[in-house]
Design a protein that fits this description.
By secondary structure, the chain is α/β, with parallel strands linked by helices. It has two domains: about 210 residues, Glycoside hydrolase/deacetylase (TIM Barrel, Alpha-Beta Barrel); about 90 residues, no CATH class. The protein is built from 16 helices and ten strands. α6 links the parallel β5 and β6. It is globular. The two termini are about 30 Å apart. The structure holds zinc ion. Zinc ion binds next to loops. GO terms for molecular function: hydrolase activity, acting on carbon-nitrogen (but not peptide) bonds. It is found in: Secreted. It holds the Pfam family Polysacc_deac_1. This is Polysaccharide deacetylase.
Length: about 400
Amino acid sequence: MATARVLRRAVKAAAAGVLHYSGMRRAMAAYRRVQSGGRRILIVSYHRVVSDFTGELQRSIPGLLISQETFRRHIEEASAAGFDLVSIGDAVDVMAGRRVAKKDLCVITFDDGYRDIYRYAYPILKQLGVPAITYLPTAFIGTNRRFNHDRLFHLLRRTQERNFQPVYATLPDASLSLLGPILSGQKTVSAALDDFIGEHPTRVLTAIIDGLEQQLGGGQDLVPEQGDIMNWDEVRRMARDGFEFGAHTLGHTVLTLEPQAVVEQEILESKRTIEAEVGIQVRDFAYCNGWYSDEIIRTLASHGFRSGVTTEDLPNRIGGDPFTLKRKVLWENFSLGMLGDYSSPLTGCQLDDCFGLLGVSRPVPGRRTHSYRNGLLGNLVTRPGSSLTEAP
Ligand SMILES: [Zn+2]
């Protein structure tokens, strides 16, 4: 598996070199520009910007990490590729035809409000005069809590390290489909988590965390040290420097798995909390796990939001829907060349979406049918020993 990954990376890096030096990359960017209606609008997404990437890699979900140096290079690379780095509001205005852009646009976004952003991204952005928006799951801001995905990742790694065989009878039924492939070596922890998190409501994740923690005997080393989240003072400090903040629910909730009353509360309360704490107007939203539905979009629009970002890796178009903004989720490995070092042609090709145009990368659609029923079943399966299984 690792060999295939290295090989794929090598092929991509080699292709990037050819595309870059042959001028194909420029031609592809020009084609995308025409396709997009005159200007490209690239929205990129990051989670954690870290000072010690290799160290963090030992204990954190890899796909959430980028080093400070690579992050800075991404900004430089985007400028060199002809993008103007602008705010989300500017991009939405250009998409709606309210304003005209002289250059292609690139918007930097951060999901989840990790403290790393305050520590390591904010100083770079401030120095370079580049705007950015951070989407906050407000129930976590200013607390010592960790996200379910970080807690689960940590617990699964501990389970693996200790060669621990969980007792499934006292865990939610769904836990076998998460733990099974990991403990048998079929999937890495992060791949298994990726597949699992979007399919199961928060209460199932919490029940697995609680159950596993108990089985592993509790204790401080079962809670990850990493993955700490900003406090409101840090948010306010960034806001004073002009950085924007958007809503990302209260509890980092995948809204398509929740009933309408929960959707309403998660959206409205997270908006109101940021507005009250920071004194700014909140009109932008990021869908947790990138999943959205017509009902969710209607709720956002009715509460005065102007945009919603997905994780669909597709180009945005002038005249497109501001509530299904396409985004490229980036992390360290997006820029790694053949020898595992930083590759400028590869990064450029990624930002220019050459691989999307060639059909190499396959975007995951974020539009989902709302599944309250599954949500309710999800609630039931969290009871230990329940004989009910999750609906597909
Ligand atoms: Zn998120």
